[in-house]
Here is the input.
Amino acid sequence: MTTTTSPPGPSSSPVASSTAGSDPGCHEFESRGVYYAATELEARACVGQNVVVVGGANSAGQAALFLAQHVDQVHVLIRRDNLPETMSSYLAQRLAHHDRITVHPRSHLTAVKGERRVSELTWRDEHRQRDVRLEAGGLFLMIGAVPRTAWLRDAGVELDSKGFVTTRDTFATSVAGVFAVGDVRAGSVKRVASAVGEGSVVVSAVHSYLGGLNR
Here is the structure.
């Protein structure tokens, strides 16, 4: 890991979003070292290497602890001064005392490089006023998601303030015959298993709606 000191500057834009303008190179390496989940599949691809987890909420903490069982070292980048501001105290304490996890406060990703796969990551450490470059085999973005649902509002589907679809019992939306399950639904837990479960449950509601149309 190398560091470069430079003069203080303004905070950077968020590490990643749905807009390409704020993407430091993540999209180019999706599924080739850049991941949005931390499962056995992703962990196996990073065995024995350094990885970086971006995010300060519980999902990032859980990912870091899981990855630490498989990789050489986990570096967690957070934009705030300390973890307890956004993460449960139990998780924050476990990360702070784990010998294979290093938390970097007030840090944001600036570059993702590699050839076929991610091989080098760079971030700005505002706390120490330096740029850090690390040879790494994986980047895990655990910073939430921006739903692509603007088109649904034009169709009359009710969305919450963040753009997620609001639903009622049986996952029905504000428009008859339109249902929402999984990550796009307001209040969902944003997990694959949960989305699959909701999908299986909503089938009966869809059948009931279609059956009513045929009466």
